[in-house]
Amino acid sequence: MNKTVANAEEAIKDIADNAVLMLGGFGLCGIPENCIAALVKKGTKNLTCISNNAGVENFGIGLLLKTRQVKKMISSYVGENAEFERQLLSGELEVELIPQGTLATRCMAAGYGFPAIFTPAGVGTEVAIGKESRMFMVDGAEKEFLMEYAFDADFAIVKAWKGDTHGNLVYKDTARNFNHPMAMGGKITIAEVEELVPAGELDPNHIHTPGIYVHRIFQGVNYEKRIEQRTVRKR
Amino acid sequence: MLDKIGIAKRIAKEIQDGFYVNLGIGIPTLVANYIPKGMNVVLQSENGLLGMGPFPFEGEENADLINAGKQTITTVDGSAFFDSAASFGMIRARKVHLTILGAMEVSENGDIANWKIPGKMVKGMGGAMDLVASAKNIIVAMQHVNKEGESKLLTKCELPLTGVRCVKKIVTELAVLDVTPQGFRLLERAPGVSVEQIKNATQGRLIIEGEIPEMVID
């Protein structure tokens, strides 16, 4: 069960133009820096990126936007990125904004084998337009839920703290975020880790993502781990 | 009239011992500073943390540890990390007792608009739609009127909605109000603010019954 590949270039080598990708991370926290750099280098075009955010102008998915490799973003919050805004307003980039919990759950549903899930998020808003809905009893009252489909992504690209050669993953702190549900939800899941160890070295009790969900794994290099909002207090 | 800190202090009085609380960005974040000492309250950050602590000391920032506003933070004793699907799972399953968030508009039936202004750059709803659709109790921290002096407490929201019939209570610079099936019920006046001022600043149906007390803020 050795899932190890040499590096990011090898891990992403069969990602073709028009691929649908899930990209882990929240803001710049826990993003697959090595694979993003490799995709920029490879020049893969017309990508659909399912990612909570769109990075910043010169980091994260922002790098793929800058080189115009992204056709469509499916995100919950795209934040402050002037290049993103320019492409959106000029019609070069398609953007589908969906609630954050819906995004996470559609990834999870793919990994759990549910074709769709029901969520109350977006009921009565423009998010509900064109969607099927159903009433369910919640705490003794009828409540409306929207049906949201599981994502069907060609690849999930995630970043973990530690991983082993079988693809078992452990995340650090809030960098788990979308990485775990996306790792579960990809048809082919690529994991880059800060530290890759031989199978047997990670405590099976502490695995977050079981290796069955992971197809390729490599130890990344030169992690920048940029901080988007550095906030501190006085000693 | 209250400033932002005053609004945060007044909202902090709504928090009860044993509550799990989700705080939105802006004024709601300030509420964390005024939770009474000795009260057991756990702050949920929807990017995957229960037990959010204060900002780190300079030099101790950790890129892997941020809140939903992408700010560097710390954890407190008894914290737990989890993934985004689990995070919205606990929100959807109504385990979080109280959600405090900002709003651009609230209507008299409890609809809220806080994510989109047509014609302006749309940044996205983030987790707001999930939070308002499932929270047991939602308190909104907002300004009563906009910069043009127009009321933001309306008969019907004009901006695209974030959620429907979900807001339970509103704290503004002028007043504390409950959202009831009959409309906005005035509960308290901010220091130095008259009932007349609140009436003039509220476009939606306002219910005023009996003497309206002035807020008590430490």
Radius of gyration of chain A: 18 Å
Query: What is the total domain count of chain A?
Result: 2
Q: In terms of quaternary structure, what is this? A: heterodimer
CATH architecture of chain B: 3-Layer(aba) Sandwich
Structural class of chain B comes to alpha/beta
Q: Tell me, what's the shape of chain A?
A: globular
CA radius of gyration of chain B is 17 Å
Average of per-residue pLDDT values of chain A: 97
Residue windows where pLDDT falls under 50 for at least 5 positions of chain A:
none
Largest sheet of chain B: 10 strands, mixed
Global outline of chain B: globular
The number of strands of chain A is: 11
Provide the low-confidence segments of chain B as ranges: none
* Strand arrangement in the largest pleated sheet of chain B: 4-3-2-1-5-8-10-11-12-13
> What is the percent of helical residues of chain A?
10-25%
CATH fold assignment of chain B: Glutaconate Coenzyme A-transferase
- Specify the helix fraction band of chain B: 10-25%
Question: Would you kindly provide a written description of the structure presented here, covering whatever features stand out?
Answer:
The complex is a heterodimer of chains A (about 240) and B (about 220). With about 240 residues, chain A is α/β, with parallel strands linked by helices. Chain A has 2 domains: about 10-100 and about 150-220, Glutaconate Coenzyme A-transferase (3-Layer(aba) Sandwich); about 115-150, no CATH class. Helices cover about 20% and strands about 25% of the residues of chain A. Chain A has helices spanning about 10, 35-40, 60-65, 80-90, 100-110, 180-185; strands at about 20-25, 45-50, 70-75, 95, 115-120, 135-140, 140-150, 155-165, 170, 190-195, 215-220. In chain A, strands 1, 2, 3, 4, 8, 9, 10 and 11 form an 8-stranded mixed sheet that branches. In chain A, helix 3 links the parallel strand 2 (about 45-50) and strand 3 (about 70-75). Chain A is globular. The N and C termini of chain A lie far apart (about 50 Å). The model of chain A has no long low-confidence stretch (mean pLDDT about 95). The longest helix of chain B is centred in the N-terminal third of the chain and has 9 residues, at about 5-10. In chain B, strand 1, helix 2 and strand 2 (about 40-45) form a beta-alpha-beta unit. The model of chain B has no long low-confidence stretch (mean pLDDT about 95). Helix content of chain B is about 15%, strand content about 25%. Chain B contains 5 helices and 13 strands. By secondary structure, chain B is of the alpha/beta class. Chain B has one domain (about 5-205): Glutaconate Coenzyme A-transferase (3-Layer(aba) Sandwich), CATH 3.40.1080. In chain B, the strands form 2 sheets. Chain B has a 10-stranded mixed sheet, sandwiched between helices. In chain B, strands 7-6-9 form a 3-stranded mixed sheet, with no helix packed on it. Chains A and B meet through helix 4, helix 5 and helix 6 of A and helix 3 and helix 4 of B.
